[in-house]
């Protein structure tokens, strides 16, 4: 089970960027886990709730995560430099075609090492590359 200091249960709510990933987390959520709708949460969805957020490892995805973390106080969920590097290595080993990382780099407010790691590898990873890990997190939450 993944925990943060002071949390009794992780994750109380989760939000994912794409509807496909959200639908997969709904299939077998852990008791008490509350997957939320895909995309950027709206104010009514996020007001008063603590949640963890996961999105794409590309520059627009990092910009969106920055906005959600700043506006709603979300916690990044498997969105660190180590997570990115692990997924990039695993995707390459599995023969998944590489997607080039395009546009200007965006620094992640939660991990100063993420943007340099992404720029160094130059690979964009969609949220679906993390799907099995996200589902495992929810399955193991209790």
Strand content: 5-15%
Helix content bin: 40-55%
- Average pLDDT taken over every residue: 76
What structural category characterises the helix and strand content? mainly alpha
* First and last CA, distance: 7 Å
Placed side by side, the strands forming the largest sheet appear as 1-2-3
Uncertain segments of ≥5 residues (pLDDT<50)? 1-11, 19-23, 29-38
**Which descriptor suits the 3D outline?**
globular
Major β-sheet annotation: 3 strands, parallel
Give the total of domains: 1
Helix-strand topology string: EHHEHEHEHEH
Q: Work out the number of β strands.
A: 5
- Rg calc: 14 Å
Question: How many helices in DSSP terms?
Answer: 6
Overall description:
With 142 residues, the chain is mainly α. The chain has one domain. 40% of the residues lie in helices and 8% in strands. The strands form two sheets. It has a three-stranded parallel sheet with strand order 1-2-3. Strands 4-5 form a two-stranded antiparallel sheet. Helix 3 (59-72) links the parallel strand 2 and strand 3 (75-76). Helix 4 (81-93) runs parallel beside helix 5 (114-121). The longest helix is centred in the middle third of the chain and has 14 residues, at 59-72.
């Amino acid at each position: 089970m993944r925990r943060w200091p002071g949390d009794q249960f992780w994750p109380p709510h989760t939000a994912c960027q794409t509807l496909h990933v959200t639908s997969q987390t709904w299939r077998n959520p852990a008791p008490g886990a509350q997957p939320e709708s895909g995309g950027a949460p709206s104010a009514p969805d996020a007001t008063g709730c603590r949640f963890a957020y996961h999105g794409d490892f590309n520059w627009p995805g990092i910009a969106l995560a920055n906005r959600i973390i700043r506006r709603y106080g979300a916690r990044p969920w498997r969105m660190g430099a180590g997570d990115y590097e692990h997924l990039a290595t695993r995707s390459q080993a599995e023969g998944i075609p590489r997607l080039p990382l395009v546009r200007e780099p965006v620094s992640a407010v939660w991990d100063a090492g993420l943007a340099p790691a992404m720029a160094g590898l130059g690979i964009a990873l969609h949220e679906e590359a993390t799907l099995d890990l996200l589902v495992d997190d929810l399955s193991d939450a209790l």
